[in-house]
Amino acid sequence: MQRMNRTFSLRVAAFLTVGALVATACSDGNSAIDAGRDDAPAAEPAPAASDPADDAPAADDTPPATDGAGEPDSDEPESGDPATSDPAETVTETTVSPLAEYPACTPTALDGVDETVDVTLWIGLAAPLEEALDSLADEFNASQDQVRVSIENQTDYENTIDNYFNLGVGERPELLLAPEFVVQAFAESDTFVPVQACMEATDFATDEFLPRAIEAYSYDGIQWGVPFNVSSPVLFYNKLAFEAAGLDPDSPPLTFDELEATSRQIVDSGAATYGIVVDVGRDSAAGRFEQWFGRSSVPFVDQGNGRDGRATEALFANETGLAILTHLRDMNVEGLSFNVGENAGGVPAFLKIADPQEAGAMTVSTSAAISQVLDALDDGLGNGLTGDDIGVGFLPGPSDQPAAQVGGAALWIPADKGDVASAAAWKFVEFLSLAQSQSTWAAETGYVPIRTDALDLDPIKSLYEDDPRFRVSFDQLVAPVTDPSQTRPALGPQREVRQVIADMIAAVYDDPSADLQQLLDDAESTSNSLIRNYNELN
After folding, report:
1. What is the predicted pLDDT for the residue at 97?
2. What are phi and psi of 294, to 5 degrees?
3. In a domain, 216, yes or no
4. How far is the C-alpha of 418 from the C-alpha of 99, rounded, in Å?
5. Separation of alpha carbons 204 and 198, rounded Å
6. Which of 236, 379, 391, 518 is the most buried (most CB within 10 A)?
7. Are residues 413 and 521 in the same domain?
8. Mean pLDDT (whole number) for 124-142
9. What is the mean pLDDT of residues 423-433?
10. pLDDT, tens digit, 9 for 90 and up, residues 151-161
């Protein structure tokens, strides 16, 4: 069985490095996103109980970015005598581009530049991923002499975001790789060039892009980032346990009901002590809670799931939320699931699957970890389990339609670096978005290509044919977006709201007798306070 070539050795602690990077957050309790606004920095969008930094500038009263279409002047002149009205004074309405109020993108700015333009790309990825991206940068640099790209690793997304906003414009990079949870805050920070301006200036087509990937970085009708490293949660399962329980190892559960039935058969047969390993992590458990609302086509927040403008309230204390919590509680009470807590880096969940005494047969984690997990098991770290013993399936959920929301990150172009720098950064973004670049990147890392035509090209074409496990995430992201609720909610305080959700899920496991509707109501109320605080302070 062919898998992607590896030149590095992975330890157990590196199982979910990629997943851990996706889950990073500002650790000082204050939002670097808002502290770093150039024109008028805003105060803390985190929980109201958090104190803003002592040296943080005052909040800005500037309203959030809109679609840019102005309303007609309401102070119309009084009507005159029709006989004396001058028809030449008739006002013709004009359409204002939604991009008019944002920094421009001028790709032609490179045309008159004689010297090579340096572009620094900041990332927050694990070393093996950095190596794969370095290789693409080297290929790009060798292909032309207008732009030279260098990559600086800030170690994780948290540091990337903090460093960007805490440093002055002159110390910022020309290009930034940032995760899905910053979309609203970044778009409203007034520090980025909307990539839609670059797309329109270069006739950049997104027809082949995965709709769920491209729309994840759209806010208020404008495309702000170009997706690059895309992933989604998938089911990892022990095929040997399935076989021992009399289950088809090539038919993993897809719905909550199937997951419960599969877990029960595994436990009752003694094939494993638990059916599935779960957790209460902020970006894992809480992220899946969002995923399941999207799977149900039910909005998580208002304003088109936060995509049409600023969300003003959370909407998850409803029948959908109650059904999800009921499923989680029942699985736990009946001994079908095992909670490993916060599941730092994803490692505890995978260790539980390989537990020789009380193993779980399944767990859910990021698709970006597939190659790391399989390679680690083949290195002998699975107590007898090998990579071939692990199956990968769609994320189980409340419906039988395999679909998911994207994780990962996108490429953002900082403003105030000048037209030439923005043009140079865009040139590299175009290269990274090519079908061949995406095929190479996906095959080297385990991420999902952002475009469908990449699957026609090697090396990802051969990898998906040789080992379909790597294609599972792509197949659950390829479905079109027919409702805004199917895209991740966009929230300024998204990380803080996810922590509220994670705490709610932890309470379900800690006290099975708890009133689930009350837990939902309390979590929604706290989330609404966070949203209200953010909207008032920014």
Report:
1. 65
2. -65, -40
3. yes
4. 17
5. 8
6. 236
7. no
8. 96
9. 99
10. 999 999 989 99
Considering the entire predicted model, what is its pTM?
Answer: 0.83
In the DSSP assignment, the letter for residue 301 is B
Tell which residue, 64, 45, 189, has the closest CA to residue 527. Answer: 45
CATH of the domain at 430: 3.40.190.10
CA distance 62 to 47: 21
Phi, psi dihedrals of residue 342, rounded to the nearest 5°: -70, -20
Asked if the structure places residue 88 within a domain, the reply is no
Q: What is the DSSP letter of 209?
A: B
Domain carrying residue 259: 233-404+490-537
Lowest mean pLDDT among 349-353, 362-366, 377-381, 531-535: 377-381
Q: Indicate the number of domains in the chain.
A: 2
Q: Distance between CA 466 and CA 457 in Å, rounded?
A: 14
273: region left, alpha or beta (phi > 0 left; psi from -120 to 50 alpha) = alpha
Could you tell me if 321 and 451 lie in one domain?
Answer: no
Q: Which burial class, exposed, middle or buried, applies to 83 when counting CB atoms under 10 A from its CB (0-12, 13-18, 19+)?
A: exposed
- Cα end-to-end span (Å), the chain: 53
- What tokens appear for 87 in the block? 């028809």
Closest C-alpha to 176, from 197, 191, 198, 196: 191
Contact present, 345 and 20 (Cβ < 8 Å): yes
* Domain contains 15: no
Q: Are both 136 and 245 inside the same structural domain?
A: no
Q: For strand 175-179 and strand 360-366, is the pairing parallel, antiparallel, or unpaired?
A: unpaired
For residue 240, what are the CA distances in angstroms to 237, 266, 296, 305, 310? 9, 11, 31, 41, 48
Q: Which of 437, 457, 477 marks a domain boundary?
A: 457
In 3-state terms, what secondary structure has residue 97? coil
DSSP H/E element including 363: strand 360-366
Position 268 confidence tier, pLDDT thresholds 50, 70, 90: very high
Banded pLDDT at 96 (limits 50, 70, 90): low
CA angle 207/209/212 to nearest 5° reads 120
pLDDT in tens, 143-194: 999 999 999 999 999 899 999 999 988 999 999 999 999 999 999 999 999 9
- The Cα 211–Cα 482 span in angstroms is 10
Q: Are residues 376 and 269 in the same domain?
A: yes
The mean per-residue pLDDT over the stretch 112-141 comes to 96
The three-class DSSP label of residue 230 is strand
> How far is residue 95 from each of residues 57, 100, 113, measured CA to CA in Å?
36, 11, 34
pLDDT digits (tens, 9 = 90+) for 464-489: 999 999 999 999 999 889 999 999 99
Same domain, 394 and 432: no
Q: Is residue 1 part of a domain?
A: no
Q: Which of 190, 192, 186, 198 is nearest to 157 (CA)?
A: 186
Residues 377 and 517 in one domain: yes
On whether both 385 and 510 belong to a single domain, the answer is yes
Structure tokens at 85: 């009205």
The answer to whether 531 touches 492, Cβ cutoff 8 Å, is yes
Give Cα 347 to chain centroid, integer Å: 20
